[in-house]
Amino acid sequence: MAYKRIFAIVMDSVGIGEAPDAADFDDVGADTLGHVGEFYAGDLALPNLGKLGLSNIRPGKPIQGVPVADQAIGAFGKMREVSAGKDSMDGHWEMMGLPVRKPLSTFPNGFPEEIIKKLEDFSGRHVIVNKPYSGTDVIHDYGEQQMKTGELIVYTSGDSVLQIAAHEDVISVKELYKICEYARSLVNGPEWTIGRIIARPYVGPDKDHFTRTANRHDFSLEPIGETDMDRLKAAGLDVIGVGKINDIFSGHGITKGYHNESNMDGMDHVDEVMASDFHGFCFTNLVDFDAMYGHRRNPKGFGQALMDFDQRLTKVLANLKDDDLLMITADHGNDPGYRGTDHTREFVPLLAYSPSMKHANQSLGIRPTFADMGATVLENFGVQGNSEGTSFLSEVSNGETVK
């Protein structure tokens, strides 16, 4: 077969300009990478992403600080989302051949009383807030009250999410997870179908020092159909999930999983997996871009996280074997230079590289769906898909025959 191992790294929320349907999401003008580059005014140093072809994706409007490579070492393009939402679950599911074409439930005015009452009865705790809110702002504004009363901070965003925040010293992580598991059972349809229930534990002595912890846990909707990861696993291949991949797919189609404490911890896991002998697909999500900087509208932190990731790519690129393929992409945008605090509907970058790639400096163009990535992985391993997406394996091939 073409490659023995494929590594896909999702830079969570690193979009590359408004999608054609951005107006439908009130996201016209969103441009995550573009606005981060503008903030740094040419000082955004991303040499590895640059030589892979990041600015070659849109040569007429390169990312400031990231020159267009005369000869990119890999293949480059961008992907458009067809799913009805712009949440992480929608994006990752679509990458794995399961687009979410029916909109999930959102709650711009807060959750119905029926849901709140059931949460209160189950937990024995009163619910406060119950409206769209920034995750960091909500613990700043209500965290001290929650510590005194033991209430549950319940909030949402523009996505299909129900989030519950609680101080770890007041409500244990174990109890918070139990409450979130119950909340998950309430919103699996048909009346309400929510993509993710998110446990948001935090610590700290007061509102000026509260921080959310790595004990966040996503209780995702069970995949509504078979994914490309299920197909790979059924074919006897290794499927390794790094970061919140396990949460997003509710453990389906994964043979081994790693929990990330941070982007850098996630890259440590990538290095560990690269050093191991496995045959199959490693799917990684790095969430700090989104959770730490995108939602907080912090372009400085976002850019620093990109530069830190780029530095880690030095080792990854050096350790890639001839029968390895690396793909780097994103699941949506979260423009720190844009209004609001929600995800933004954008194209996502697509970079692919192998030391043995037959044709370098290759444009993959505009892919019409994220599912093209999963279709490529399946074709590489000779696994039958469901006709979602079109493989670009021939454009990133090392010339070996798929068996």
Automatic annotation (TrEMBL):
Mn(2+) 1 binds at residues 12, 331-332. The keyword Nucleotide-binding does not apply. It catalyses: 2-deoxy-alpha-D-ribose 1-phosphate = 2-deoxy-D-ribose 5-phosphate; alpha-D-ribose 1-phosphate = D-ribose 5-phosphate. It holds the Pfam family Metalloenzyme. Belongs to the phosphopentomutase family. PANTHER family: PHOSPHOPENTOMUTASE. This is Phosphopentomutase. It comes from Furfurilactobacillus rossiae DSM 15814.
